[in-house]
Amino acid sequence: MTISANLDKLLDKQYEQQDLHDLVNAPVHAIAGISTADAQALEKAFAIKTIGDLGRNEYIRAATAIAALADASK
């Protein structure tokens, strides 16, 4: 199944045309607004090196779930 989405606003220019499977392995700083220094801090603190690592991180997932539940209960 082919999945397509326009992620241009979420990504730095050089990563806009990459396939989703490639983006999972792209460095965290490929996300627009995350600097190289931010990415280095994430790697140091949580061993997060790629977008996939960030999205699969247990702490990020817990925070996302808590925020979604809080928003849904408003």
Describe this structure in words.
- It is a single chain.
- By secondary structure, the chain is mostly helical.
- It has one domain (8-72).
- The protein is built from 4 helices and no strands.
- The N and C termini lie far apart (36 Å).
- The mean pLDDT is 95.
In short:
The chain has 74 residues and is mainly α.
Write the layout of secondary structure elements.
Layout: H1 20-23, H2 36-46, H3 51-56, H4 58-72
Query: Termini, distance in Å?
Result: 36 Å
Can you give the helix content as a percent range? 40-55%
SS field, number of helical segments: 4
Which word captures the global form? Answer: globular
In total, how many beta strands?
0
Please tell me how large the radius of gyration is.
14 Å
Oligomer: single chain
**Strand content bin:** under 5%
- Biggest sheet descriptor: none
Low-confidence stretches: none
Average pLDDT reading: 95
Task: Provide the descriptors you would attach to this structure in a database record.
74 residues, mainly alpha, 4 helices, globular
